[in-house]
Amino acid sequence: MHTHVNAVGLLVCTDPATNFSYPAHIPRDCIDSLPRQPGVYIFRDAAGIALYIGKSVNIRQRVLSHLRTLEEAQMLARTCRIEHERTGGEIGALLREAQLIKEHQPVFNRKLRRIREMCSIRLGGALPEVVFAKEADFGRTEGLFGLFQTRKAAQETLRNMAHSDGLCSVMTGLEKGAPGRPCFARQLKRCRGACTGEESATEHAARVRAALAPLRVTPWPYPGAIAIVEKSDGLRQRQLVDNWCYLGTRQPRRKRATRFDVDVYRILARPLLEGGLTIEQL
Predict the structure, then answer these.
(1) What's the whole-model pTM score?
(2) Where is the GIY-YIG domain (predicted)?
(3) Considering only CA atoms, which of 6, 14, 48, 16 is closest in space to residue 30?
């Protein structure tokens, strides 16, 4: 809030938020019907196209905050209706928001819009390698570390790790080398000599794995699909998930192919692995 003293000595508030007025072109009925429970909401234009999709544990409170945000004036000017959909809890709202944004690609959503082709660092062979999701099922593959949008980002992580942990740039696949010949890092005394045989390949591989450990991608921890059960003010929902892929709230009639979804993984990995959710195995 900004204030100043005017010519007659009165303290005047210049906070632009105080000049807020309700967008009269948005029908009041869609605002009045907003619940105070968890769920998702959609701002639509005159043609019914989704402009923005959001989620909240209190739909009404969150939508009203949008209407008071001057930075969102452009979106509000194009909005002709606001719809909402309740969920059984916060997890359901997060999953449904990610699903709807991918489906509708709203122009005012900055995140989650693109279905990204992710890559990861895989350990298993002689050297770490960068693999893409089209080459390996990330949800069921052991030995993956980190989720990156580009090969360059994955290699940069390896390069930083090699520098900070004294790893060999040849043995991490960052530099080509001949047997027994010191890598560039060894010449600068930053490598312990895995390239020249002064450090065993086994010991070096163990140090690589330890350095990458915080980035480990956890494979799907169940033999098949599960339902995450949530309840909110009389609404009980089962969010179906398999292989870090969101399937919706209803069991599909036919078994559907599941593809690792990085957004679902980031939403669920911690609460699911920490045991804080009510789970039904299907």
Answers:
(1) 0.84
(2) 36-110
(3) 48
